[in-house]
Amino acid sequence: MENSRYPKFTFTWIGGVVLLAGLFLGTLSVSFINTFWMLVFKESLQYKEWFLMLTNAAGFLAAIAFFDFFIVRPSTKKKLNFNFSPTNFSTYLLIFPLMLGMMFIAEFITSQIPITGPFFGKYYEFFSKLMSQLTDDKAVMIIMTVIMAPIFEEIIFRGIIQKGLMNKGVKPWKAILYASIIFGLVHGNPWQFVGAVLLGSVLGLVYFKTKSLLLPMLLHGFNNLCSSLLITYTKSESFSEAFKVSEWVILAVGIVLFSLFYYLFMKKYKVHYSEI
Fold it and tell me: Cys-Cys crosslink for 58: which of 26, 49, 110, 130, Cβ 3.0 to 4.6 Å?
């Protein structure tokens, strides 16, 4: 690892603060641009379909840049860099069914979380309205969820947080779990938290075993594409509703898929390979 072209940085609470500072200042810069535009042209950009997309991109890019310039370069004398190498075709045949199985399992567990009641009812109503605003423009939704989110989020949660924890000496399974929990928490609601933690664990495992950030990005995009298609054509994110089958059937298929392809994937990658 010492001669690797990839910097061996670590992730601590200071790195977390730097990421948050970059995210805040990045989104704030877009707000300043909007304010300037309103003063000059008497028009608010926040009602444009692409404004949320621009805000997210600015926040994520600033967060990554801040971590690079304030953490990685001073400590490693190298710029932030990741392995995006593709892998052999057989690996793709293992990881996509693995991911799909966990998607089915996550859907079943998420469906058990209440959406009614004094707390969950109001929270779910607020969450549903928020999601409906995101899905109004299908093109923007696809760009944000299928392209932007997988790239930016995998760089931060797997590439920076998980890898940085492992470089610090945290056991791989703990680093994968910690990064996945943080990934779930930033979604800000219990329904997406469950799926983000479970699916994030698969993404983290794939990244740990293959050493390529491209693979979790593709899996993340696959998950979000499935969600976008379900929302577009069935008005929900439910496979059970789309296929007109019981949630228990979805769970059973998910367990079989995940168990089988987890075994095959771990057997193929039972040797720990180093990133060079």
Answer: 26
As a whole number of angstroms, the distance between CA 217 and CA 84 comes to: 9
What lies within 8 Å, CB to CB, of 230 at 6+ separation is 236, 237, 238, 239, 242
Which residue, 43, 38, 85, 88, is CA-closest to 216? 85
Structure tokens at 14: 């200071």
Cα Rg of the chain (Å, integer): 20
Global pTM value = 0.92
Q: What is the pLDDT of residues 23-55, one digit of tens each?
A: 999 999 999 999 999 999 989 998 887 888 999
CA dihedral 214, 250, 261, 229 (to 10 degrees): -20
Question: Is residue 195 a contact partner of residue 180, using CB atoms and an 8 Å limit?
Answer: no
CA angle at 84 for the pair 93 and 262, rounded to the nearest 5°? 30
What six digits make up the tokens of 221?
């995009």
Kindly write down the DSSP assignment for every residue of 179-205, as one continuous string: HHHHHHHTT-SHHHHHHHHHHHHHHHH
Token digits of residue 189: 């609601």
Kindly tell me the sign of the dihedral angle through the C-alpha atoms of 113, 116, 118, 122. positive
126 CA to centre of own chain: 22
Report the alpha-carbon distance of residue 254 to residue 107 in Å, rounded. Answer: 9
Asked if 160 and 67 count as a contact pair (C-beta separation under 8 A), the reply is yes
Tokens of 71: 């953490």
**CA 163 to CA 175: how far, in whole Å?**
8
Amino acid at 111: S
Q: Which amino acid is residue 158, in one-letter code? A: R
Question: Over the stretch 172-218, which tens digit does the pLDDT of each residue have?
Answer: 999 999 999 999 999 988 889 999 999 999 999 999 999 999 999 99
